[in-house]
Amino acid sequence: MTNHVFYRAGTHGNEASTGTDWVYVEGKELKQVSSGDNIVWGVDDDNDVFIREGISPSTPTGTEWRLLPVKMEQVDANPRFQLAWGVNSTDNVLQRIAGVPIPETHCYV
């Protein structure tokens, strides 16, 4: 099974829309994905965490995946705010707020 990521065309900025088509988002295969307003987080098979950069009305699928210096089993993006929660391999719950740098050794709890 592949872990491709898809975006539902016609849904950016319109929660009521059912969309029109599925669009493949290139660059990463992710085992788990969570999204919110202009934010997409994902985890790959190595538990590396990625966020999607460049999401906007003109580029709703974003422009690139950025690797974060942290390992997670699962992430959950807040649907309204630029923050996410994650669970690491030792079952610690961590939070990241957009724009706050993540130190190389840990996330903010």
From TrEMBL:
Keywords: Lectin. The keyword tRNA processing does not apply. Pfam families: Tectonin. One of its GO terms (molecular function) is carbohydrate binding. SMART domains: TECPR. It comes from the Eukaryota. PANTHER family: DYSFERLIN-RELATED, FISH-EGG LECTIN-LIKE ISOFORM X1-RELATED. Belongs to the tectonin family. This is Uncharacterized protein.
